[in-house]
Amino acid sequence: MKQRRKNILLGAGLVLVMLLSIVAYSRYTQRQIHHESTQNLLSTYGQVSKTFTMFVQRNWNILEIWSDDLAQLAEETNTEVKWRRYVNEKANWQYSEVALFNADDQFWTVSGRRGDAPHMQSALEEVYTMDGPIVTSYISSKGVRKVMFAQQIEPVTMDSVTYTSMAICYDNSVLENMLGGLAYEGQSDCYIVRSNGNIVLSTEPKSEIPEQMTNLFDYLEANVKADQPYFDEMRKNLPLQYKGSVSYTFNRKRYYMVYQPVGVKDWAIIGIVPTNVMDAGMRQVQMFTIALLVVLSLMILGGIGKIFYDKEKTRKEKAEAERIELQRRKELTEQMFHGMARIVDRFVVCDLENDRYEYHERRRKEMYPTEGSYLDLLSWLSRQYVILTDGENTKLVQMLAPENLRAKLKEEKDSIKFEYATRDRKSFLMMTVVPVGWQNGRLTQIIMISQDMSGQHILQELANTDGLTGLLNKRYFDAVTRALVHQEQAFVLFYLDLDRFKSVNDTYGHEVGDKLLQAVAKRLQSCIRNQDYAFRMGGDEFALLTIGAMSPEEARRKVEFICKTVAAPYHVAGSLLTIGTSCGFALYPEEGTDTDKITRLADQRMYKHKQKNHALQDHGS
Asked: What is the pTM of this model?
């Protein structure tokens, strides 16, 4: 149940992470699309701005030149004829009309038209109220939008009418082409505005913004839903001649608006384009990518769900198999208990998980309580018994510790077998440990089977020990050294040969010599620990084998101690006897990796020691 809840939470977490990732990706790409689109717009309208600036400067230059010409024409007699020569310039300048005006809205054009122009009243008022040349627009009498460049001039009288301003007019189509009104599929609006938002010029509106207005900013602020901080920033930036962008929504339609100075007075160019015109392709890519991410996420979630389902199915199947296996093992264990009761001396069923044991004795009186704490049982066994396995320096409490058992008993077929004895060596036993209980692959229950081996051990000891001294014999020496080398267990071999023993044997007889050898054997045993070995190799040659690593200096001190111990006087059969010993050592594995080399090296050093002892005796004599 806990695992299922964990899987559900994990799946929900993955769904949340994927959703948040998709949202984050969507917002990131949205920002990138906005940035790329506005930068492209700024670049486009930057080029338009340069073209417009050149166009304005050109027309103002024309007005300046022609106003100077007017002063000269006024002095000539045939003024009208000479004036009309500028009609020929129309093909070069592409204007629709050049005209003279006065404050009464009277006009005279180079094409020969003259009269009143009340429809131009507001445009002409701007000429006489502004200081310097102007650019403005108006609707002609034929309903056509015109763009007019005008400035005041020195009064010129023609046909008894005095004119005080001069203008060059263009069809709005010229401005449309120049300001990019046909760009972006003909759906863009372009305005030339002053820094306060007052409109100087505009193309025919393509968006939903009406044509008749005075201030673009006031209209937008009152009618559209804009990103207000950016809108306020635009109002601050334009007087400072900065550029930037604003997004707004009008009648549920989203627009990009970019602004930048044109380099003429405080004017700025404003470009307005629907967002779907600018970034429809990029948004399609974005939506396709998001859809692909959603599909991939669903596939991943489906895969994870399949994994969880298969895992849960496998877990249930495994749990059922374990239940069946446990039932089978329980039945086998019960049968085994009944069978073991007839053939083994004693056995202990141990619960490692709950620190409990049950003890069953079949041969003698009970050795310890029939049930109790498993760890207490180990402590009691460690105080009463020692392990006899060759080369091992392990206590029972370590051998039977739960963590050691779990490390060595991995499968049902595994087992641990070792020989152990009471500390006084009066009883010898063989213990076999087998696993019988598991939980989720973890060993939980064992059986320790104990068999009395005292009879077999006596026979084996007779075969492995020296009959005179009771020390281990050469046969057992070979077996022990082979076992230690096989286990790669470090040890030190001390090889001894008695000095002056032959003279004792010759002087006092073999019976005294045998008793002396027995006394030497006891002293040699006092030089080693319980886990070490003492051997009689034959005649008056002995060997000591200590378990564990030792430095050469420590080995030399050990040699001195052994020689000193052996050299102490002996009281044998009423006589005080004194002998010596020569001793050599070899370190495994530092000085050799096989038993023959180690034995040979120790023997060589013993022989050198004997030569040294003989030289000292000869010198003393």
From this structure: 0.44
